[in-house]
Amino acid sequence: MDLGVKGKWALVCAASKGLGKGCAAALAAEGVNVVITARGLEALHETAAELRRAHPGIEVRPVAGDITTAQGRADALAAAPQVDILVNNAGGPPPGDFRHWSREDWLAAIDANMLTPIELIKATVDAMAQRGFGRVVNITSAAVKAPIDTLGLSNGARSGLTGFVAGLARQPKLAGRNVTINNLLPGPFDTDRLRKTVQAAAAAQGRPQESVWEQRRLNVPAQRYGTAEEFGAACAFLCSTHAGYITGQNWLIDGGLYPGTF
Ligand code: NAD
């Protein structure tokens, strides 16, 4: 299927690795020019080179910086002539017990996983509406639907973003101008982040890492972890011309892990 987005410009945040990289690669494969951001220079430039090699017909602009800062966002926005597609992503907050979290810990989580996407949406959606096309995809977490107690900072901050998006996406001045805003909710995907989480859980339980990894894998009805490529494919579809009637939605991609009917 031709997704109909060739030649458009996407800003994909936190995209040197993992799910963000999967989204950038899937969009690049559709002929979308991409601005990709990350904090670490080395992985960012490797990913940019990989995308250019695979898709010589598009422009790939890497921007190093912390997307949770005003400077990081300004640099990312300045690198694209216009933003037709915005994929919001940033590292997730650390796990822990809420009894140990300070106000600063909360503010950092809210900044990264709620206010940063809101700032980038604010900077881009009205121009998208003027041009009559826009797609925003926020990478959140399955924890929005099925909270994980040790990830309270993530549950809280991402739920705030989800509530905000639910209202904004339904504004006729956006939805009525072919601007959609949706959230993708990953369950367990095989990325650096998941491997670090499993490593920490194994150390806390005094168990071998491999056994925790296998136990979690078998917990998923699909009997496997998701891949960044399949996450990217779902993102690219939501960004396509075919998905203009899908807005304000929360798509779980979790191999069947969430047990509810709705
Ligand atoms: P990852 O660690 O594999 O990759 C994270 C990417 O984000 C890297 O490119 C890193 O450089 C970049 N990054 C992190 N913080 C940044 C910042 N402040 N500014 C710019 N770039 C930044 O992680 P992932 O597994 O791809 O996770 C992506 C998001 O999805 C995270 O918020 C994570 O909490 C969430 N998530 C992941 C899973 C999973 O199973 N992998 C499940 C649920 C939610």
Notable characteristics:
seven-stranded parallel sheet; 262 residues; 14% strand; alpha/beta; binds nicotinamide-adenine-dinucleotide
Beta fraction of the residues? 5-15%
Question: In sequence order, what are the helices and strands, one letter per element?
Answer: EHEHEHEHEHHEHHHE
The overall average pLDDT, rounded, is: 97
The total count of strands amounts to 7
Give the cofactors and ligands: nicotinamide-adenine-dinucleotide
How many angstroms separate the termini? 28 Å
Arrangement of strands in the largest sheet:
3-2-1-4-5-6-7
Structural class: alpha/beta
What composes the largest sheet?
7 strands, parallel
Q: Give the fraction of residues assigned to helices.
A: 40-55%
Q: Radius of gyration, rounded?
A: 18 Å
Which runs of at least 5 residues are low in confidence (pLDDT < 50)?
A: none
- Overall 3D shape: globular
Number of helices: 9
